[in-house]
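Lecture 7 notes: from sequence to structure.

We start with a single chain of 351 residues. Read the sequence below before looking at the structure.
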Amino acid sequence: MSEADRQGGADGNTSEQPALPVSQYEVVPSTRKSEDTDLYAFRTEIPPPPPPPPPTPTQVVFEQNKTLLVAVAVGAAVVLIMVLVAWVVMRKDEPTAYIDLGSSNITASGLQGRLVARWLGSAAYELRIDPISTTELAGFSAVVDDPPHPLSVTIRFKAASSIVCQKQILLPFNQRPLADPDHPETILPQKTFDGDTVQNVITTSGKIAEIVVSGPVNCPEKDYKLLQGWDFSSNFPLIAEQDDWLRRLETALAAERRRLAEERARALIPKSIPLAAPIEGDDIIVSDNPSRGTVMTSTGKTFYLGRDVLRAAPTGWQVFPVSIHFRCDTRSFCTLTHYGTSTYLSARLVR
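Now the structure, written as tokens:
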């Protein structure tokens, strides 16, 4: 009970109430001495764990050779590290696979070359030759397509200012008759005597704009690593000689065009009919074939006049039907006379 409650009861303001009991606890020392064994007595009640299973044969072998296996693993790791280090060292010392040696010119012949050196286990090269100026393309193409003599190129690989490797390339030389200028042949890769590959690059106009030559070169590794530049020489004709050769070829090509045109024209001429004796008679031309230069009659005869003759014939011969009188010799050479006119045409009887 609080102090205020007690005072209130003393003053008679409230009725007196009984006090609540208060609990009390006392610590009584134990008279019995405890032992540590009592604290862990519960262990005796826990059953012991089962024994481990016997080791398998593999585990027995592993345990017996554990030390050997560890040594083998360590040795393999050391060997792998050594191989890796050796590979890095060897690769660092390996020659550069691709060396662009840039361009070199032969001004007198109007040639420009670009050389790339390669290392594919041994030295190799790729050489591109083209005219310096497009104004010299026609002469360059004429010489490469139909050379006046066998062409050769000598390339020299340089380290600083000294020559360390070189190679002479003999370009393929095949003398051939002039091809049909209106139907050019497909240009395929060719091989040199040394087995190098030569490919001519063609423009859309049909001219040879570049020569690409590639192959091996006898250049030891120690010299290949020193490469810094190059130059080349050639027996390629001079610019003036190229122009002269071009004019000769153009003249020859013009003659070849005329010859081929005449051959094609002759191929269109039908063969004549051999006659046992001269013939003569009257007939009527009913149609013509301007593309073949022939006219056909009502009796089934066919006379060859030629395309130019048909185009230039007088008007009276071009309106069908045309009444004619014909006279032919044993070689089938005929004369056709148009009734009502004094004109006549020479022809051959082909059917």
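The first helix runs from residue 3 to 10. Keep this in mind for problem set 3.
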